[in-house]
C-alpha cells in the first residue's frame, strides 16, 4: 500500500499517517512497534517523556523492515531545555533507541516561563548540523513562539505537532504553518472520541461505511495535516490505517468545520511549563 507523503521545508519527505507511542506501556512498546510496521505504518512518533524509547528501538530492530523505510520522531522534554542540556538529551534519546540518527527531533513544549526554548532550538540546529538528527521541529508552539525562533535563527521548523481535532481546529496556527511551509501534525487527532456522535461525523460515517474514527482521520488528511493516532491493538492499528479508499465531500468537510469549540483535551501551551 502506497501512502501519501508530505514534503518538508528542508527537502525531505515523511509519511502523512503514522502512529504515536504516548501512553503505550514500556513493556508493550516493542510489540506495538512490530505490529504497526507489519500493518503498514512507516512513521512512528515517540518522546523521551513517554518512557518507552528503549522499546521503540527494540521494535524497530525486530520489525524486519529496512531502517531507511521508517520515519522516527522523538522529542526533548521540558526538564532538558537549554543549549547544553538539550544537546545531551538528544544524545540520551539516541542511546535509548539505539540509533545514530533519528529522522525528526522536536522540542516537546515551549514552556514559556522557563524562557529556554530559543536556546533549545539552537541546540537542535547544532545537532542537525552534526548529523544526529535529520530534521528538526517543534511541538505545541504558538504563533508568537514560532515567530521568535524563526526571527532569531532564520531556521524554520519543518513541523509543529499540536493538539488538533474537530473540537479544536487551530485555524490560526494552520494558516501560519501554511504561510511558512511548516507541516501541521495532529496529536490526539480523535479528540478522545468527543466528536464521534456529532451529526456531521455520523452522517459521513453512514455514507462511507466507515467508523467515526476513520472519518475524523480522513478529515485530518484532507486538511493537509500529518496525523498520529495511537492504538495498542493490532485491530485498532489496522482500522486507523484503512482510510485511503474513500474521501469526504466538500460539504462534509464544511460540516465538520462547524464542530469547532476551542476545547482542549490537554494542557494549554501558554501556561504549561
Mean model confidence by pLDDT: 97
Q: Please summarize the sheet with the most strands.
A: 8 strands, parallel
Give the helix/strand class.
Answer: alpha/beta
Query: What is the level 1 CATH name of one domain?
Result: Alpha Beta
- Give the CA-based shape: globular
What's the total number of strands?
Answer: 10
CATH H level, superfamily name of one domain? NADP-dependent oxidoreductase domain
Pfam family, one: Aldo_ket_red
Protein name: Aldo/keto reductase
InterPro entries: AKR, NAD(P)_OxRdtase_dom_sf, NADP_OxRdtase_dom
Organism: Paragemmobacter ruber
Write the layout of secondary structure elements.
Elements lengths: L4 E3 L5 E3 L3 E2 L5 H14 L3 E3 L7 H9 L9 E6 L6 H15 L4 E6 L9 H13 L3 E7 L3 H11 L5 E5 L7 H10 L2 E5 L11 H10 L3 H12 L2 E2 L6 H8 L8 H8 L16
Helix pairs in contact: 1-2, 1-9, 3-4, 4-5, 7-8
Give a brief rundown of this model.
With 273 residues, the protein is α/β, with parallel strands linked by helices. It has helices at 26-39, 53-61, 83-97, 117-129, 143-153, 171-180, 199-208, 212-223, 234-241, 250-257; strands spanning 5-7, 13-15, 19-20, 43-45, 71-76, 102-107, 133-139, 159-163, 183-187, 226-227.
Amino acid at each position: 500500500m502506497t501512502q501519501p507523503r508530505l514534503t518538508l521545508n528542508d527537502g525531505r519527505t515523511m509519511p502523512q499517517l503514522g502512529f504515536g507511542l504516548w501512553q503505550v506501556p514500556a513493556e508493550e512498546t516493542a510489540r506495538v512497534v512490530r505490529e504497526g510496521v507489519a500493518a503498514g505504518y512507516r512513521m512512528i512518533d515517540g518522546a523521551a517523556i513517554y518512557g518507552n524509547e528503549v522499546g521503540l528501538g527494540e521494535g524497530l530492530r525486530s520489525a524486519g523492515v529496512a531502517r531507511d523505510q521508517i520515519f522516527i520522531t522523538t522529542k526533548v522534554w521540558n526538564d532538558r531545555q537549554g543549549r547544553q542540556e538539550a544537546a545531551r538529551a538528544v544524545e540520551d534519546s539516541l542511546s535509548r533507541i539505539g540509533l545514530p540518527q533519528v529522522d525528526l527531533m522536536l522540542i516537546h513544549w515551549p514552556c514559556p516561563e522557563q524562557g529556554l526554548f530559543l536556546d533549545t532550538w539552537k541546540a537542535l540546529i547544532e545537532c542537525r548540523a552534526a548529523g544526529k538528527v535529520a530534521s528538526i521541529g517543534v511541538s505545541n508552539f504558538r504563533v508568537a513562539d514560532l515567530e521568535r525562533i524563526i526571527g532569531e535563527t532564520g531556521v524554520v521548523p519543518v513541523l509543529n505537532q499540536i493538539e488538533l481535532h474537530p473540537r479544536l481546529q487551530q485555524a490560526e496556527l494552520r494558516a501560519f504553518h501554511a504561510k511558512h511551509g511548516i507541516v501541521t501534525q495532529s496529536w490526539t487527532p480523535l479528540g478522545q472520541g468527543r466528536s464521534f456522535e456529532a451529526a456531521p461525523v455520523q452522517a459521513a460515517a453512514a455514507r462511507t461505511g466507515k467508523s467515526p474514527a476513520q472519518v475524523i482521520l480522513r478529515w485530518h488528511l484532507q486538511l493537509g495535516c500529518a496525523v498520529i493516532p495511537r492504538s495498542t491493538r493490532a485491530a485498532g492499528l489496522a482500522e486507523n490505517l484503512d482510510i485511503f479508499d474513500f474521501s469526504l465531500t466538500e460539504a462534509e468537510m464544511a460540516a465538520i468545520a462547524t464542530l469547532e469549540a476551542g476545547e482542549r483535551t490537554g494542557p494549554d501551551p501558554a501556561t504549561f511549563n
